[in-house]
Structures are given as structure tokens and as C-alpha cells.
């Protein structure tokens, strides 16, 4: 029987190519940068144009589908998952990187019907296209990828991001988590600046773990299926099951590393995507 999600994914890959071109072209120009919730929460005209391109193209073909797009939500659209097939879109993940033409900027998608069906993350400056269809493995530019399989946390490279919230309590807990992890010890901690790319770096074995509190479903959606299909572990920061709307996650190359991190990381409250706006 034909796989209806395969057709969606193929369409999405075509739109991804157009989005990637739009982002790369924009890097040659002066782009207007605007603030959203705070001086460190940025959006550019390219984020808005890319999201419009993606949504209008998908809507033409799949007229009944729903959307959760980062910039539409910022403009007041709801971010609620229903039983309707829903596309979750981050037009530019790593907007701060994009503004300085840093290496890791991606456009990422997912389509879900209660369960995540497929994910696409395109790291455009590097021209790396990560894809995964549930049950069919994960790929980078068509080549199969796998997590490192590292079990020993003292030999691991861990990724995290500083996020946008800078209030003293969050800051203290965030810094204390970094100190705790560095003194395990691990080989190092890095912050590449794009949650979607971070997930793909773990998926292809370039890093062994990634944790983050305060991101959004559009930052995690595309990467979630890619990590799972690459053999990685994905869970909530508490060690419970991963929840796409929870704004937090741990992913790792092995259960041992994921469990170790859940035991040492202190949590701070981040709210939920489906209870805001
Ligand atoms: C960004 C993430 C980044 C994180 C920021 C923000 P945006 O996404 O990918 O890793 O630190 O908090 O969420 O806003 O560039 O799509």
C-alpha cells in the first residue's frame, strides 16, 4: 500500500530546497532584524518570508492540514496539537547565527498525526539535509546516519544552549548544570546555536548528548524523529517520556548517558507550548 506520508515528505523536500535557497540568497543582503519577546529573541524578514513560503505551498496541496509555525505563533496563532495532521515549522532555527552568517542555521519541519511521522532539517550553510521517516532510518544527504553509541559519559561531548530567558534564577540553575556536567567530567560542552542542528549532530555521531530547557516544539520537532531513527534516545529532562509540547528534552547516543544526565540536571520551570498564547 502506498505510504501517504511519503508523498507529504517528498513535497516537503521540494519546499525545503526553495526555503534553503531563500535563506542563502538572504545571507548576501542586508536583512531587517526585529525583536520579539526580548532583545535576544530575534526575527528577520527572512524568517517571515520563509514561513509564508512553506505554509502557502503546503496549504495549496493539503488544504485540510493544520500548522504550527514559529512566526505564526509569535503573531498570535495557537500552538496546539490536535488529531488533524499538523505541520510544525521552524523557518530559520538559529536566527542569531543567521544574522552573523554563522555555520549552523537550519530550516526544520515535521508532520505529525498523533505521532511524529517524518522530520526534515536542512542545515543550509553547510548544505546538509537530514531526513527521517518513521521506521525507515535517518539520513544526511541520502547517506544513512547513526548515533555514536557512546556509553561512557566521561568520554562524551555534550551540547546545550543558553536560551533566551536571562532571569537570575534560570541563569543560576543553567550555570550550575553546566558546572555539574563539566565536573563529571565530560570531554566538553558546546553551544552551536541551532536546536535542530544540535539534534542532528547527535544523530550523526558528531556529539553524544544534547539537553535544553526552554525551547519550543518547532525547535525540536524535525530533529526528534531523526534522532530516534538514528538509534538515539530521546526523553524528558526528568527521565520521563519525551513530550513535544513540554519545551524541554534530553537526547543521547545511549540510554546510559541519557539516564546519567537526567539524574544530575536541575530543572527550572519553562511552561508548555500548548498552554501559552
Ligand atoms: C533558537 C534555538 C537556539 C536556542 C534559542 C532559540 P530560533 O531558535 O534554536 O538553539 O538557544 O533559544 O530557541 O529562535 O533561532 O528559531
Automatic annotation (TrEMBL):
<feature type="binding site">
    <location>
        <position position="93"/>
    </location>
    <ligand>
        <name>Mg(2+) 2</name>
    </ligand>
</feature>
<dbReference type="InterPro" id="IPR033942">
    <property type="entry name" value="IMPase"/>
</dbReference>
<comment type="pathway">
    <text>Polyol metabolism; myo-inositol biosynthesis; myo-inositol from D-glucose 6-phosphate: step 2/2.</text>
</comment>
<dbReference type="InterPro" id="IPR020550">
    <property type="entry name" value="Inositol_monophosphatase_CS"/>
</dbReference>
<feature type="binding site">
    <location>
        <position position="70"/>
    </location>
    <ligand>
        <name>Mg(2+) 1</name>
    </ligand>
</feature>
<dbReference type="InterPro" id="IPR000760">
    <property type="entry name" value="Inositol_monophosphatase-like"/>
</dbReference>
<dbReference type="GO" id="GO:0008934">
    <property type="term" value="F:inositol monophosphate 1-phosphatase activity"/>
</dbReference>
<dbReference type="GO" id="GO:0007165">
    <property type="term" value="P:signal transduction"/>
</dbReference>
<feature type="binding site">
    <location>
        <position position="219"/>
    </location>
    <ligand>
        <name>Mg(2+) 1</name>
    </ligand>
</feature>
<keyword id="KW-0460">Magnesium</keyword>
<dbReference type="GO" id="GO:0006021">
    <property type="term" value="P:inositol biosynthetic process"/>
</dbReference>
<feature type="binding site">
    <location>
        <position position="92"/>
    </location>
    <ligand>
        <name>Mg(2+) 1</name>
    </ligand>
</feature>
<comment type="similarity">
    <text>Belongs to the inositol monophosphatase superfamily.</text>
</comment>
<dbReference type="GO" id="GO:0046872">
    <property type="term" value="F:metal ion binding"/>
</dbReference>
<keyword id="KW-0378">Hydrolase</keyword>
<keyword id="KW-0479">Metal-binding</keyword>
<dbReference type="InterPro" id="IPR020583">
    <property type="entry name" value="Inositol_monoP_metal-BS"/>
</dbReference>
<dbReference type="GO" id="GO:0046854">
    <property type="term" value="P:phosphatidylinositol phosphate biosynthetic process"/>
</dbReference>
<dbReference type="InterPro" id="IPR020552">
    <property type="entry name" value="Inositol_monoPase_Li-sen"/>
</dbReference>
<dbReference type="Pfam" id="PF00459">
    <property type="entry name" value="Inositol_P"/>
</dbReference>
<protein>
    <recommendedName>
        <fullName>Inositol-1-monophosphatase</fullName>
        <ecNumber>3.1.3.25</ecNumber>
    </recommendedName>
</protein>
<feature type="binding site">
    <location>
        <position position="90"/>
    </location>
    <ligand>
        <name>Mg(2+) 2</name>
    </ligand>
</feature>
